[in-house]
């Protein structure tokens, strides 16, 4: 992994990051999210954003955090992952950070409920630890999960 820019967002009290190249835009959560039958609990539904039907997931639910309550700070992070759009509900978008590869450590243990390589590593920035996610692996994991 090399030096790069990451969009940093909150899930509960924890900070997570995704490479900025994956982030298409950040919007308020639409009032209308159309539910779909027989989907996993983390799948919130779909939205129509400028004539694009976009699946929406709640990352807190997917990662096993407590139920998300909607607040004014909640945002929908629209990701463009290999020409597939995915909406990800996050508690708040904090900032865009430039992180040097030397500040990122690979994790050396398995995380229950997450596929291998879903996490790039942990970034140390000032006195903070930021979990850096591999958006493409998470997309593959989510779509595979929804197919079953």
From TrEMBL:
GO cellular component annotations of the record: cytosol
Pfam families: CheW
CheW-like domain ranges (all copies): 3-144
Domain of life of the source: Bacteria
GO biological process, one term: chemotaxis
Matches recorded under PANTHER family: CHEMOTAXIS PROTEIN CHEW, CHEMOTAXIS SENSOR HISTIDINE KINASE-RELATED
Protein name as catalogued: Purine-binding chemotaxis protein CheW
């Amino acid at each position: 992994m090399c030096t790069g820019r990451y969009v940093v967002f909150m899930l509960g009290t924890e900070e997570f990051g995704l490479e900025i190249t994956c982030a298409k835009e950040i919007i308020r959560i639409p009032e209308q999210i159309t539910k779909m039958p027989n989907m996993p609990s983390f799948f919130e539904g779909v939205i129509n954003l400028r004539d694009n039907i976009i699946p929406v997931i709640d990352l807190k639910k997917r990662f096993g955090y407590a139920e998300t309550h909607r607040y004014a700070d909640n945002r929908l992070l629209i990701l463009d992952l290999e020409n597939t759009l995915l909406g990800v509900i996050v508690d708040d978008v904090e900032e865009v950070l430039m992180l040097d590869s030397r500040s990122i450590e690979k994790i050396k243990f398995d995380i229950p409920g997450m596929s291998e390589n879903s996490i790039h590593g942990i970034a140390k920035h000032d006195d903070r630890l930021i979990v850096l996610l591999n958006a493409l692996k998470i997309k593959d994991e989510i779509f595979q999960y929804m197919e079953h």
